[in-house]
Every structure is written in C-alpha cells, then in structure tokens.
Amino acid sequence: MSKKHHQVEEQEVALAAIVVVADDGAIGRNGDLLCHLPADLKHFKAITMGHSIIMGRRTFDSFPKGALPGRQNIVITRNEHFSAPDVTVAHSVDEAIKAAIMPGEVFIIGGAQIYAATFERVTTLYLTRLHATFPEADAFFPTIDPIEWDTISEEHHDSDDRNPYPYTFITLRRK
Ligand SMILES: NC(=O)c1ccc[n+]([C@@H]2O[C@H](COP(=O)([O-])OP(=O)(O)OC[C@H]3O[C@@H](n4cnc5c(N)ncnc54)[C@H](OP(=O)(O)O)[C@@H]3O)[C@@H](O)[C@H]2O)c1
User: Fold this and answer.
1) What pTM does this model have?
2) Is 147 helix (H, G, I), strand (E, B) or coil?
3) Which of 108, 98, 121, 147 is nearest to 21 (CA)?
4) Which domains does the chain carry?
5) In the chain, which end has fewer C-beta atoms inside a 10 angstrom radius, N or C?
6) pLDDT tens by residue, 135-163
7) Atom 34 in ligand 1: residue holding the nearest Cα
8) Which residue's CA is the closest to the ligand 1 atom numbered 35?
C-alpha cells in the first residue's frame, strides 16, 4: 500500500472517547468504576451499540460478563498469549484502530492508560461529568483544555434514587 493511500485511510477513522469523569478528573479506583450509575450504563450502551470499542486489558477484566454484546470488543494487551471469547486482541493502539471493522465512530472506552495513549487522536468526547470528587481515586482522565474543544451538547440530570450524584452528559468536538 502506498504511503498516500495509508494516510487517507488513517484520516477516515473517526476516533471518539467515552468516559464517566468526576469534577476532579477521577475515573476509577481499585480497578473498578467510581460508583454505580445506571443512567450512564444505558447512555453508554445507546452510543456505542453497533460500533467497535477499544479498551485496555484491565478495563476488559473489570467486566463481569466478558465482552459487551452487539459491539466489536478490541482489547489492547502486551500479553502475546491473551485471548477471550468474542474479543479482537491487539498489541498496540495502532493495531487496535486498524482492527476496527464496525461502521461509524470507533470508541475508546478506557481505562486511564488507553485514554492517555489515544487522547491526541480523539476528535469527539462523550463525557458523563459526575458532579462529585473522589480523593481515593487511582485512575484519571487526561486534562481537557476547554480552549481546544467546542461543546456540541449538554444535558444535566439531578441525582435520584438510583443515581447517587448529579451528572451531565456532554459532547465535545475538537476545534
Ligand atoms: N470512568 C470510566 O468511564 C472508565 C472507563 C474505563 C475504565 N475505567 C477505570 O479505569 C481503570 C483501569 O485503567 P488502567 O489505566 O488501570 O488500565 P487500562 O487502560 O484499562 O488497561 C491497561 C492495560 O492495557 C494494556 N496496555 C496499555 N498500553 C498498552 C500499549 N501501549 N501496548 C499494549 N498494551 C497496552 C496493558 O495490558 P497487559 O497488562 O495485559 O499487557 C495494560 O496493563 C479502572 O479503575 C476502570 O474501572 C473507568
């Protein structure tokens, strides 16, 4: 393949990240999410269904039932022997992006290492901003510089019986 052709192909991948991130940038602790937020699980499912989702091996390990149905699950690991049912294995970020075969946006779904490694290439951010702080967190999202992003949509929700903190669904597009 010529270099020119290769560059055109790379540009065609619309890379998005989707994350629940607290006001202090926290995204996880002890290998798990910060809290159970059922409204976000529904939101995450609606946005990612039918697409390729790319994740780090630790995030994959945190899923209780393995691969998420209805999506191409691409797991990045340095372990040459890793395999899991219904998973496409990749050994680098580039390999993961090239392995994505589902139409439309390709979603980076975490965790901290994979968000950091892909952030500069991501053009759309689907944030669920959790209005709380988590001093005990050990995993964080990269700093989002508001100057670099346009807000496409914003939808606020108060806490309720099932969702313990107020949260805002925010879509940002890189300028
Ligand atoms: N709030 C949210 O929306 C959200 C979303 C996802 C995850 N999380 C949280 O984030 C935390 C997990 O994040 P994490 O940073 O610890 O782990 P991670 O990013 O999920 O996975 C890290 C693993 O990915 C592999 N990896 C990373 N960079 C690589 C590279 N350049 N080449 C090949 N493989 C590479 C390695 O796997 P091997 O060790 O197998 O080589 C590494 O151990 C958890 O607390 C999770 O709940 C939060």
Assistant:
1) 0.95
2) helix
3) 108
4) 12-174 (3.40.430.10)
5) N
6) 999 999 999 999 999 999 999 999 999 99
7) 77
8) 77
The closest residue, in CA terms, to atom 8 on ligand 1 is 111
Please give the Cα distance from 125 to 174 (Å, whole number). Answer: 8
In testing the pocket of ligand 1, which one of 77, 88, 107 has its CB within 8 Å of the most ligand atoms?
77
> Where do the DSSP E strands lie in 32-148?
52-56, 72-76, 87-90, 106-108, 124-130, 139-140
Neighbours of 85 (CB within 10 A): 7
Rounded distance between C-alpha atoms, residue 42 and residue 169, angstroms? 12
pLDDT digits (tens, 9 = 90+) for 78-103: 999 999 999 999 999 999 999 999 99
Cα(10)–Cα(94) distance, integer angstroms: 10
Q: How far is the CA of 77 from the centre of ligand 1 (A)?
A: 9
Ligand 1 centroid–CA 110 distance in Å is 6
